Protein backbone atom coordinates (compact mmCIF):
# COMPACT_ATOMS: atom_id res chain seq x y z
CA UNK A 1 0.00 0.00 0.00
CA UNK A 2 1.32 3.43 -0.90
CA UNK A 3 2.22 5.67 1.98
CA UNK A 4 3.98 8.97 2.26
CA UNK A 5 7.67 8.28 3.10
CA UNK A 6 9.96 10.54 1.11
CA UNK A 7 12.26 7.66 0.22
CA UNK A 8 9.38 5.93 -1.54
CA UNK A 9 8.55 9.10 -3.47
CA UNK A 10 12.17 9.43 -4.53
CA UNK A 11 12.22 5.77 -5.58
CA UNK A 12 9.14 6.26 -7.77
CA UNK A 13 10.61 9.37 -9.37
CA UNK A 14 13.84 7.56 -10.15
CA UNK A 15 12.17 4.43 -11.52
CA UNK A 16 11.83 3.78 -15.25
CA UNK A 17 10.39 0.23 -15.34
CA UNK A 18 9.17 0.58 -18.93
CA UNK A 19 12.43 2.03 -20.24
CA UNK A 20 10.36 5.02 -21.30
CA UNK A 21 12.72 7.95 -20.76
CA UNK A 22 13.72 8.50 -24.37
CA UNK A 23 10.29 7.81 -25.86
CA UNK A 24 8.40 10.06 -23.45
CA UNK A 25 10.81 12.91 -24.11
CA UNK A 26 9.31 13.01 -27.61
CA UNK A 27 5.68 13.18 -26.46
CA UNK A 28 5.43 17.02 -26.39
CA UNK A 29 6.42 17.14 -30.07
CA UNK A 30 3.93 14.39 -30.91
CA UNK A 31 1.23 16.41 -29.16
CA UNK A 32 2.24 19.62 -30.88
CA UNK A 33 1.78 17.83 -34.20
CA UNK A 34 -1.39 16.04 -33.02
CA UNK A 35 0.32 12.85 -34.23
CA UNK A 36 -2.19 10.25 -33.07
CA UNK A 37 -0.48 7.51 -35.05
CA UNK A 38 2.86 8.11 -33.33
CA UNK A 39 1.23 8.32 -29.90
CA UNK A 40 -0.60 5.04 -30.54
CA UNK A 41 2.62 3.33 -31.58
CA UNK A 42 4.33 4.73 -28.46
CA UNK A 43 1.64 3.41 -26.12
CA UNK A 44 1.67 0.01 -27.79
CA UNK A 45 5.47 -0.10 -27.52
CA UNK A 46 5.43 0.66 -23.79
CA UNK A 47 2.69 -1.74 -22.69
CA UNK A 48 4.50 -4.55 -20.84
CA UNK A 49 3.60 -8.20 -20.60
CA UNK A 50 1.03 -8.85 -17.90
CA UNK A 51 3.33 -11.34 -16.18
CA UNK A 52 6.09 -8.76 -16.00
CA UNK A 53 3.78 -6.03 -14.68
CA UNK A 54 2.50 -8.33 -11.93
CA UNK A 55 6.05 -8.76 -10.56
CA UNK A 56 6.83 -5.07 -10.05
CA UNK A 57 7.07 -3.52 -6.61
CA UNK A 58 4.39 -1.03 -5.58
CA UNK A 59 6.76 1.79 -6.47
CA UNK A 60 7.60 0.27 -9.84
CA UNK A 61 3.92 -0.16 -10.61
CA UNK A 62 3.27 3.48 -9.69
CA UNK A 63 6.06 4.63 -12.01
CA UNK A 64 4.71 2.48 -14.85
CA UNK A 65 1.22 3.93 -14.39
CA UNK A 66 2.72 7.43 -14.45
CA UNK A 67 4.43 6.77 -17.77
CA UNK A 68 1.52 5.03 -19.47
CA UNK A 69 -0.72 7.82 -18.20
CA UNK A 70 1.08 10.52 -20.17
CA UNK A 71 0.21 8.63 -23.35
CA UNK A 72 -3.38 7.96 -22.23
CA UNK A 73 -3.98 11.66 -21.70
CA UNK A 74 -2.22 12.61 -24.92
CA UNK A 75 -4.32 10.32 -27.07
CA UNK A 76 -7.50 11.43 -25.33
CA UNK A 77 -6.65 15.07 -25.93
CA UNK A 78 -6.63 14.41 -29.68
CA UNK A 79 -10.03 12.73 -29.67
CA UNK A 80 -9.00 9.08 -29.32
CA UNK A 81 -10.03 6.73 -26.54
CA UNK A 82 -6.63 5.12 -25.89
CA UNK A 83 -7.89 1.69 -24.91
CA UNK A 84 -9.94 1.49 -28.08
CA UNK A 85 -6.72 2.10 -29.99
CA UNK A 86 -4.51 -0.13 -27.80
CA UNK A 87 -6.82 -2.65 -26.06
CA UNK A 88 -3.91 -4.73 -24.77
CA UNK A 89 -3.21 -1.90 -22.30
CA UNK A 90 -6.43 -2.57 -20.36
CA UNK A 91 -5.37 -5.66 -18.35
CA UNK A 92 -2.03 -4.00 -17.58
CA UNK A 93 -3.73 -0.87 -16.20
CA UNK A 94 -5.95 -3.08 -14.06
CA UNK A 95 -2.91 -4.97 -12.73
CA UNK A 96 -1.12 -1.71 -11.91
CA UNK A 97 -4.21 -0.34 -10.19
CA UNK A 98 -4.53 -3.45 -8.02
CA UNK A 99 -0.81 -3.46 -7.24
CA UNK A 100 -0.88 0.13 -6.00
CA UNK A 101 -4.40 -0.03 -4.52
CA UNK A 102 -5.44 2.90 -6.69
CA UNK A 103 -7.64 3.51 -9.72
CA UNK A 104 -6.50 2.01 -13.06
CA UNK A 105 -5.38 5.37 -14.36
CA UNK A 106 -2.75 7.93 -13.42
CA UNK A 107 -3.70 10.52 -10.79
CA UNK A 108 -2.40 13.91 -9.69
CA UNK A 109 0.17 12.08 -7.54
CA UNK A 110 1.63 10.33 -10.58
CA UNK A 111 1.67 13.53 -12.62
CA UNK A 112 3.26 15.80 -10.02
CA UNK A 113 4.77 14.35 -6.84
CA UNK A 114 5.97 11.09 -8.42
CA UNK A 115 7.17 12.74 -11.63
CA UNK A 116 10.93 13.16 -12.02
CA UNK A 117 12.23 16.70 -12.39
CA UNK A 118 14.66 17.99 -14.98
CA UNK A 119 15.27 16.25 -18.33
CA UNK A 120 13.26 13.16 -17.26
CA UNK A 121 10.08 15.11 -16.47
CA UNK A 122 7.01 13.47 -18.01
CA UNK A 123 5.04 16.22 -19.74
CA UNK A 124 2.22 16.69 -22.25
CA UNK A 125 3.47 19.96 -23.71
CA UNK A 126 7.02 20.59 -22.50
CA UNK A 127 5.93 24.15 -21.76
CA UNK A 128 7.49 25.95 -18.74
CA UNK A 129 3.99 26.74 -17.46
CA UNK A 130 3.17 23.03 -17.27
CA UNK A 131 6.40 22.44 -15.35
CA UNK A 132 5.43 25.18 -12.88
CA UNK A 133 2.07 23.52 -12.27
CA UNK A 134 3.75 20.17 -11.71
CA UNK A 135 6.19 21.77 -9.28
CA UNK A 136 3.27 23.29 -7.39
CA UNK A 137 1.80 19.81 -6.99
CA UNK A 138 5.15 18.48 -5.79
CA UNK A 139 5.20 21.24 -3.17
CA UNK A 140 1.57 21.02 -2.03
CA UNK A 141 0.69 17.31 -2.01
CA UNK A 142 3.30 16.31 0.63
CA UNK A 143 2.14 19.23 2.80
CA UNK A 144 -1.48 18.12 2.56
CA UNK A 145 -0.50 14.49 3.20
CA UNK A 146 1.26 15.65 6.35
CA UNK A 147 -2.01 17.03 7.69
CA UNK A 148 -3.65 13.59 7.88
CA UNK A 149 -2.29 12.66 11.31
CA UNK A 150 -3.26 16.04 12.72
CA UNK A 151 -6.70 15.84 11.16
CA UNK A 152 -7.15 12.44 12.79
CA UNK A 153 -6.12 13.89 16.16
CA UNK A 154 -8.67 16.68 15.80
CA UNK A 155 -11.46 14.18 15.23
CA UNK A 156 -10.77 12.22 18.40
CA UNK A 157 -9.46 14.70 21.00
CA UNK A 158 -11.43 17.12 23.15
CA UNK A 159 -10.87 20.90 22.81
CA UNK A 160 -9.42 21.28 26.32
CA UNK A 161 -6.62 18.82 25.43
CA UNK A 162 -3.49 20.83 24.54
CA UNK A 163 -2.78 18.41 21.70
CA UNK A 164 -6.05 19.47 20.04
CA UNK A 165 -4.92 23.09 19.77
CA UNK A 166 -1.43 22.06 18.64
CA UNK A 167 -2.85 19.87 15.87
CA UNK A 168 -5.07 22.72 14.66
CA UNK A 169 -2.12 25.09 14.72
CA UNK A 170 -0.08 22.70 12.55
CA UNK A 171 -2.99 22.35 10.12
CA UNK A 172 -3.22 26.15 9.87
CA UNK A 173 0.50 26.45 9.15
CA UNK A 174 0.33 23.81 6.44
CA UNK A 175 -2.67 25.52 4.88
CA UNK A 176 -0.66 28.72 4.88
CA UNK A 177 2.17 26.95 3.05
CA UNK A 178 -0.35 25.62 0.52
CA UNK A 179 -1.79 29.10 0.00
CA UNK A 180 1.69 30.54 -0.53
CA UNK A 181 2.49 27.89 -3.15
CA UNK A 182 -0.77 28.64 -4.93
CA UNK A 183 -0.05 32.37 -4.93
CA UNK A 184 3.28 31.77 -6.61
CA UNK A 185 1.71 29.50 -9.21
CA UNK A 186 -1.13 31.91 -10.02
CA UNK A 187 1.42 34.64 -10.59
CA UNK A 188 3.33 32.47 -13.08
CA UNK A 189 0.65 30.48 -14.96
CA UNK A 190 -2.34 32.01 -16.73
CA UNK A 191 -5.79 30.44 -16.33
CA UNK A 192 -6.11 30.63 -20.11
CA UNK A 193 -3.13 28.33 -20.57
CA UNK A 194 -4.58 25.85 -18.10
CA UNK A 195 -8.07 25.89 -19.60
CA UNK A 196 -7.26 25.99 -23.29
CA UNK A 197 -3.95 24.16 -23.59
CA UNK A 198 -3.58 21.81 -20.64
CA UNK A 199 -7.10 20.89 -19.50
CA UNK A 200 -7.94 18.78 -22.60
CA UNK A 201 -5.18 16.35 -21.59
CA UNK A 202 -7.17 15.61 -18.43
CA UNK A 203 -10.34 14.49 -20.20
CA UNK A 204 -11.92 11.23 -19.10
CA UNK A 205 -10.53 7.94 -20.38
CA UNK A 206 -12.74 4.87 -20.61
CA UNK A 207 -11.28 1.96 -18.63
CA UNK A 208 -13.40 -1.20 -18.53
CA UNK A 209 -16.59 0.75 -19.08
CA UNK A 210 -15.87 3.42 -16.50
CA UNK A 211 -14.80 7.00 -17.22
CA UNK A 212 -11.72 8.08 -15.27
CA UNK A 213 -10.71 11.77 -15.31
CA UNK A 214 -7.09 12.71 -15.76
CA UNK A 215 -4.56 13.96 -13.23
CA UNK A 216 -5.41 17.67 -13.21
CA UNK A 217 -2.59 19.44 -11.39
CA UNK A 218 -4.81 22.44 -10.64
CA UNK A 219 -7.03 20.45 -8.26
CA UNK A 220 -6.46 21.13 -4.56
CA UNK A 221 -7.40 18.00 -2.54
CA UNK A 222 -8.42 19.83 0.64
CA UNK A 223 -11.21 17.47 1.61
CA UNK A 224 -9.34 15.74 4.51
CA UNK A 225 -8.95 19.15 6.15
CA UNK A 226 -12.61 19.93 5.45
CA UNK A 227 -13.70 16.69 7.13
CA UNK A 228 -11.72 17.34 10.29
CA UNK A 229 -12.53 21.02 10.64
CA UNK A 230 -16.22 21.12 9.71
CA UNK A 231 -17.51 18.72 7.07
CA UNK A 232 -17.75 15.29 8.73
CA UNK A 233 -20.99 16.36 10.45
CA UNK A 234 -21.92 19.58 8.61
CA UNK A 235 -21.60 18.83 4.90
CA UNK A 236 -24.34 19.08 2.26
CA UNK A 237 -24.90 17.57 -1.20
CA UNK A 238 -22.39 19.92 -2.86
CA UNK A 239 -19.58 18.75 -0.60
CA UNK A 240 -20.72 15.16 -0.94
CA UNK A 241 -20.35 15.61 -4.71
CA UNK A 242 -16.78 16.82 -4.24
CA UNK A 243 -15.98 13.79 -2.09
CA UNK A 244 -17.57 11.40 -4.59
CA UNK A 245 -15.31 12.79 -7.32
CA UNK A 246 -12.05 13.13 -5.38
CA UNK A 247 -11.85 10.36 -2.77
CA UNK A 248 -11.56 7.42 -5.23
CA UNK A 249 -8.47 9.07 -6.78
CA UNK A 250 -6.69 9.64 -3.48
CA UNK A 251 -3.85 7.66 -1.99
CA UNK A 252 -4.82 4.58 0.04
CA UNK A 253 -3.94 6.35 3.30
CA UNK A 254 -6.20 9.27 2.37
CA UNK A 255 -9.09 6.94 1.52
CA UNK A 256 -8.59 5.13 4.81
CA UNK A 257 -8.78 8.47 6.62
CA UNK A 258 -12.07 9.22 4.85
CA UNK A 259 -13.55 5.83 5.77
CA UNK A 260 -12.61 6.25 9.44
CA UNK A 261 -13.60 9.87 9.96
CA UNK A 262 -16.40 10.72 7.53
CA UNK A 263 -18.99 10.22 10.29
CA UNK A 264 -17.01 11.83 13.12
CA UNK A 265 -17.53 15.02 15.11
CA UNK A 266 -15.91 18.07 13.56
CA UNK A 267 -13.72 20.62 15.31
CA UNK A 268 -16.34 23.31 14.68
CA UNK A 269 -19.00 21.25 16.43
CA UNK A 270 -16.76 20.48 19.40
CA UNK A 271 -15.80 24.11 19.90
CA UNK A 272 -19.28 25.46 19.24
CA UNK A 273 -20.47 23.31 22.13
CA UNK A 274 -17.60 24.24 24.44
CA UNK A 275 -17.68 27.91 23.46
CA UNK A 276 -13.96 28.28 22.90
CA UNK A 277 -13.31 29.92 26.25
CA UNK A 278 -11.01 29.06 29.14
CA UNK A 279 -8.91 26.01 28.45
CA UNK A 280 -10.48 25.75 24.99
CA UNK A 281 -9.45 29.24 23.88
CA UNK A 282 -6.12 28.26 22.19
CA UNK A 283 -7.98 25.63 20.16
CA UNK A 284 -10.70 28.11 19.15
CA UNK A 285 -8.10 30.62 18.04
CA UNK A 286 -6.16 28.01 16.04
CA UNK A 287 -9.36 26.74 14.41
CA UNK A 288 -10.43 30.27 13.50
CA UNK A 289 -7.04 30.86 11.94
CA UNK A 290 -7.21 27.60 9.95
CA UNK A 291 -10.70 28.39 8.67
CA UNK A 292 -9.65 31.91 7.71
CA UNK A 293 -6.73 30.59 5.65
CA UNK A 294 -8.92 27.86 4.15
CA UNK A 295 -11.59 30.33 3.00
CA UNK A 296 -8.95 32.64 1.56
CA UNK A 297 -7.32 29.75 -0.26
CA UNK A 298 -10.63 28.63 -1.75
CA UNK A 299 -11.60 32.18 -2.72
CA UNK A 300 -8.31 32.54 -4.58
CA UNK A 301 -8.83 29.18 -6.27
CA UNK A 302 -12.37 30.16 -7.27
CA UNK A 303 -11.07 33.36 -8.82
CA UNK A 304 -8.62 31.41 -10.94
CA UNK A 305 -11.25 28.89 -12.06
CA UNK A 306 -13.69 31.65 -13.00
CA UNK A 307 -11.09 33.46 -15.08
CA UNK A 308 -10.69 30.39 -17.26
CA UNK A 309 -12.87 30.41 -20.41
CA UNK A 310 -15.18 27.57 -19.45
CA UNK A 311 -18.99 27.69 -19.00
CA UNK A 312 -20.32 27.52 -15.44
CA UNK A 313 -23.06 24.99 -14.71
CA UNK A 314 -24.45 23.64 -11.41
CA UNK A 315 -21.91 20.78 -11.61
CA UNK A 316 -18.98 22.77 -12.99
CA UNK A 317 -15.79 23.13 -10.92
CA UNK A 318 -16.57 26.80 -10.27
CA UNK A 319 -20.09 26.09 -9.00
CA UNK A 320 -18.98 23.26 -6.70
CA UNK A 321 -16.07 25.31 -5.42
CA UNK A 322 -18.38 28.24 -4.72
CA UNK A 323 -20.71 25.99 -2.73
CA UNK A 324 -17.90 24.52 -0.64
CA UNK A 325 -16.44 27.99 -0.07
CA UNK A 326 -19.83 29.21 1.15
CA UNK A 327 -20.12 26.26 3.53
CA UNK A 328 -16.63 26.86 4.89
CA UNK A 329 -17.44 30.53 5.47
CA UNK A 330 -20.74 29.64 7.16
CA UNK A 331 -18.95 27.36 9.60
CA UNK A 332 -16.34 30.01 10.27
CA UNK A 333 -19.10 32.53 11.04
CA UNK A 334 -20.95 30.06 13.25
CA UNK A 335 -17.79 29.35 15.25
CA UNK A 336 -17.12 33.06 15.69
CA UNK A 337 -20.66 33.71 16.94
CA UNK A 338 -20.60 30.77 19.32
CA UNK A 339 -17.24 31.83 20.72
CA UNK A 340 -18.28 35.44 21.17
CA UNK A 341 -21.61 34.45 22.74
CA UNK A 342 -19.97 32.15 25.28
CA UNK A 343 -17.35 34.76 26.08
CA UNK A 344 -20.01 37.44 26.61
CA UNK A 345 -22.08 35.09 28.76
CA UNK A 346 -19.04 34.28 30.88
CA UNK A 347 -18.21 37.96 31.32
CA UNK A 348 -21.77 38.75 32.38
CA UNK A 349 -21.76 35.92 34.90
CA UNK A 350 -18.60 37.33 36.46
Tell me what the structure shows.
With 350 residues, the protein is mostly helical. The protein has helices spanning 6-14, 21-25, 27-32, 36-46, 50-54, 58-77, 82-85, 89-100, 108-113, 128-156, 162-188, 191-198, 223-231, 237-246, 252-261, 267-274, 281-307, 317-349; strands spanning 205-207, 210-212. The radius of gyration is 22 Å and the shape is elongated. Strands 1-2 form a two-stranded antiparallel ribbon. A hairpin with a 2-residue loop joins strand 1 and strand 2. It has 2 domains: 6-106, Methane Monooxygenase Hydroxylase, Chain G, domain 1; 128-349, Methane Monooxygenase Hydroxylase, Chain G, domain 1 (Up-down Bundle). Residues 346-350 have low confidence and may be disordered. Helix 10 (128-156) packs parallel to helix 13, helix 16 (267-274) runs parallel beside helix 18 (317-349) and helix 17 (281-307) runs antiparallel to helix 18 (317-349). It is 68% helix and 2% strand. The longest helix has 33 residues, at 317-349.
Amino acid sequence: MLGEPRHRTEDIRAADPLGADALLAAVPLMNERADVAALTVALRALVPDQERAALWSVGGAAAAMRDLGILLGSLRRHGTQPLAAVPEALPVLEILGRRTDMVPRDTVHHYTDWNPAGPRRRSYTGHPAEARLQEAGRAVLPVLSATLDDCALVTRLEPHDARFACALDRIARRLRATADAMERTVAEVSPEYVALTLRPYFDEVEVAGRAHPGPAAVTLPLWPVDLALWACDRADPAHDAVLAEEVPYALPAWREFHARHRDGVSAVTRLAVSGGTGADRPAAEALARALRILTGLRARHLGVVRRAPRPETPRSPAALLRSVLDMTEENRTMLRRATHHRAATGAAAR
